[in-house]
């Protein structure tokens, strides 16, 4: 009803899910395309509504704010493979994690760098990115390391265990700045074998099965 759509920009109503998964993917595509073309600062709820032929009030009712919509678009188009990885060995887990992270790096790294810059100026966006995307990926990598420690593959007091997630996620974002190319699957697997595994006391020949 029209009374439900009044004043959504200033006082969003409680969210109700009336958007189909297929329609949500169309909206997410519009958000990410706009971000790639013109950046976070130029993205508006009005622009997404126009591009996707969706009512602006629907966007506000479903997602509440631009940062939440951006994070939903990122989260909704990611495959979320890291929490599912469990090969039985830490070396195998980290190799598979490197492949999963590297698979989308060419598509996502430029976008994430732009969002990282915007997040430094927007506490709301930074909080949303950390809570919905960054922290879950770090938690998945930390869980792999914890399982490795529990299996006795890595010493519990090995100081390198603290930095595995920072290494993998950090190098993915740093390589475009340092070498003007993305951290693809091949690079990240070599990084794991040449830097991460040795620091953990695991040789590059450690089983990945």
Question: How would you portray this structure in words?
Answer:
This protein has 209 residues and is mainly alpha-helical. It has 9 helices and no strands. Helix 4 (66-76) packs parallel to helix 7 (123-150) and helix 8 (164-179) crosses helix 9 (185-199). It is elongated. The model is unreliable at 1-16 (pLDDT under 50).
Q: Which key phrases capture this entry?
A:
about 65% helix, disordered N terminus, mainly alpha, single chain, about 210 residues
SSE arrangement:
Layout lengths: L20 H18 L6 H8 L3 H8 L2 H11 L13 H14 L1 H17 L1 H28 L13 H16 L5 H15 L10
Helix content: 55-70%
Question: Helical segment tally?
Answer: 9
Q: Termini distance?
A: 57 Å
Shape: elongated
Tell me the fraction of residues in β-strands, as a range: under 5%
Number of strands: 0
Q: Give the ordered list of helices and strands.
A: HHHHHHHHH
Largest sheet properties: none
Unreliable residue stretches:
1-16
Average of pLDDT: 84
Class from secondary-structure proportions: mainly alpha
Rg is 20 Å
């Amino acid at each position: 009803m029209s009374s439900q759509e009044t004043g959504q920009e200033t006082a969003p109503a409680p969210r109700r899910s009336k958007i189909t998964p297929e329609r949500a993917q169309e909206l997410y595509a519009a958000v990410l395309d706009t971000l790639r073309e013109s950046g976070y600062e130029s993205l508006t709820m009005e622009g997404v509504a126009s591009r996707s032929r969706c009512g602006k009030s629907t966007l506000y009712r479903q997602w509440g704010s631009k940062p939440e919509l951006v994070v939903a678009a990122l989260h909704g188009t990611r495959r979320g493979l890291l929490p599912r990885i469990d090969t039985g060995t830490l070396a195998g887990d980290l190799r598979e994690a490197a492949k999963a992270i590297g698979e989308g790096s060419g598509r996502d790294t430029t976008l994430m760098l732009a969002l990282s810059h915007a997040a430094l100026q927007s506490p709301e966006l930074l909080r949303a990115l950390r809570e919905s995307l960054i922290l879950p990926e770090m938690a998945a990598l930390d869980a792999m390391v914890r399982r490795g420690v529990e299996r006795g593959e890595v010493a519990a007091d090995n100081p390198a265990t603290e930095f595995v997630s920072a290494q993998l996620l950090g190098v993915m974002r740093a390589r475009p700045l340092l070498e003007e190319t993305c951290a693809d699957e091949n690079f990240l697997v070599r990084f794991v074998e040449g830097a991460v595994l040795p620091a953990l006391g695991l040789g590059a020949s450690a089983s990945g099965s």
